[in-house]
Structures are given as structure tokens and as C-alpha cells.
Amino acid sequence: MVRTAAARRYNRRVLLLSVVYAVLLLAAGYLFNHRAIHGIGAWIVAILPALPIVGVFAAIGRYLIEEQDEYVRMTMVRQTLIASGFALSVATIWGFLESFGMVGHVESFYIAVLWFAGLGLGACVNKMTGVSA
Question: What pTM was estimated for this model as a whole?
């Protein structure tokens, strides 16, 4: 990724959100493993680790708005489109396989993991096609 001002802000946001995610995930895991949380509090604690991931999606959107270099912005748009197509395709195929009893259930939060893997795939595609910034 090119080191534009928008890219530096994006990297700081994602780094901060990643740290918050790790802290919240560890805290939620601890609370649930020790059965220290119940009722509405359990619902809230279970949702908290997802919020920084949602924040990363928002950070990518904000980066696309803030990025002034049209070529750099286009490479990120291409990367996110590849990530979206990859994650949705795998999730759809797995869903049909699961519905016909061919594979076991996978927790749906792994779709986000696939999407982030798709960002890496998109970066590779950009690099191999000479589109990377």
C-alpha cells in the first residue's frame, strides 16, 4: 500500500481496532469460560468483539473516501471487490453443501475471516496484474 496520508490514517485506525478486538475477545472468552456473565450482559459481551471488526469495515470505507490518489483508491476498490466476491462465493458454496448434509456447520463469523483473506488475495491479484500501487 502506498504511504499516502489517508493510508497512514487507515493503518492507525486498523491497528487500534485490532488491539481493541483482541482485548474484547480475550475478555469475552474469559467471562464466558468462567460463567461470570448472564442475561442481557452476556448478549452485550458476546457482541462486543464483533464491533471492532465492523469498525475495520467502516475504516476501509472511510479510507476510500479520504484517499485523494484515484489510482491508489482504485486498487483498494478492486481489492475489496475481490475480497467480497471470494468470501460470498465460499460462504454460498459452503451453505449449499451444509444444507445437503455434505459438510459440517461453520460459525458464520468466519465469513469475515474469509473476507480478510480475500483482501490478501486481492492484493496478490493486483500485484500479479501490475495494478498494485
Answer: 0.90
- Supply the pLDDT for residue 81: 98
Q: Are 72 and 7 in contact (CB under 8 A)?
A: yes
Concatenated DSSP letters for the chain? ----HHHHHHHHHHHHHHHHHHHHHHHHHHHHHTT---HHHHHHHHHTTHHHHHHHHHHHHHHHHH---HHHHHHHHHHHHHHHHHHHHHHHHHHHHHHTTSS----TTHHHHHHHHHHHHHHHHHHHTT---
Q: Which three cell numbers stand for residue 54?
A: 465492523
